[in-house]
Amino acid sequence: MVAIDPKTTITPSRYIKSRFLDDKASVAILITLLRAAKEQGVKPAFHTWLVFTVYEEVCSGGAWQPEELDEFLIVDMGCVGPKLSCTEQMVSICAKDHEGPYDWEMTTRLVSLAQKHGLDFAVDVYPRYGSDAAVAWRAGCDAPGALIGTGVHASHGMERTHQDGMMNTLKLAALYLGME
Q1: Which of 39, 56, 88, 159 is catalytic?
Q2: For a FRET experiment, which of 51, 75, 88, 145 has its CA 20 to 30 Å from that of 59?
Q3: Which DSSP category does 103 fall into?
Q4: Digit-coded pLDDT (tens) for 89-112
């Protein structure tokens, strides 16, 4: 789906409101990471692929993964709502969703990086959420995976996040790649 007028607004308090931020925020974070790495002459500590998938909501987005994949980090949205710790200003680290748990070692490493570098983060379980990780695993990928994302309120409609949440997610992704 392409939204011709996503009604994007950035408020004076740095909230970003738009239709379909779920994917747009993640793409913006990854493109910003690439741009910053190029401008600063920084390279990831590991051989890295950035893959932009489509159709995650219908369970086909992450079906293809490179054969040499050792592990993968999904950058999607973090849920904001009742019984969840994440806010729009945070990076969410998802420990488990409706498909099951994410890799314990990777999740623990992400939490440790967030703590060490003073990022505003939350670890949550999303009982009604799924990501491209489950699709990859069902398609035969046996690499460990983890999920992070900026907190997004009101998913799949007129959504809201905050610039701080996007920056926390960007920083954690960079730290994960060894681009301190």
Answers
A1: 56
A2: 88
A3: P
A4: 999 999 999 989 999 999 999 999
